[in-house]
Amino acid sequence: MSVAVLEHPEPWSEDEYFALGETSNRIELIDGSLWVSPAPSKRHQHIAFLLAMGLYTAAEQSGLLVLQDVNLRLAGGRILQPDIVVADTDDIGTTVEAGEAKLVVEVVSPSNAGTDRLLKPQLYAAAGIAWYLRVEQPQDTVELHLHKLVDGHYALAEVVRPGQTLASDEPFPFKLEVAALLRRRHRD
Prior knowledge:
Helix content is 23%, strand content 35%. With 188 residues, the protein is of the alpha+beta class. The protein is globular.
């Protein structure tokens, strides 16, 4: 990203946001402001990939698409890039509309914990996305926190820890074994 981006004198429009093109950073548009994050850690990316793979077959059987790091338009001037979006959409274009999203997944990292635990769930809820899955990484392990939208806010539906399986019939029937997300590649 160039210095010219930092010197933008007024709120960013969606057209200006999309004109940035592909970057090595994760850039999100929130009410005219750009939120820039570095690429996630290798572990974060690996967990997100394994989650996407774990959701893929069940989503496909329900006619849904699993996408990683896609632009998700929550409202005009609000475009986030969740780690995973499961949506009733096709693979054409660059943006998923909030009304197409059935499940949004965020893998929490130390550098973005407040955003993933507080801000993003509020924005997803305001956009009417029915399900939010937050992935925590306490003490080098993984926990899945599934939330359901109830009266405009997310209510915790279930927490699943290592040795357990998250099984849900909504927003589509799926099962995720936490142990499958702990696979690591070790060098000899």
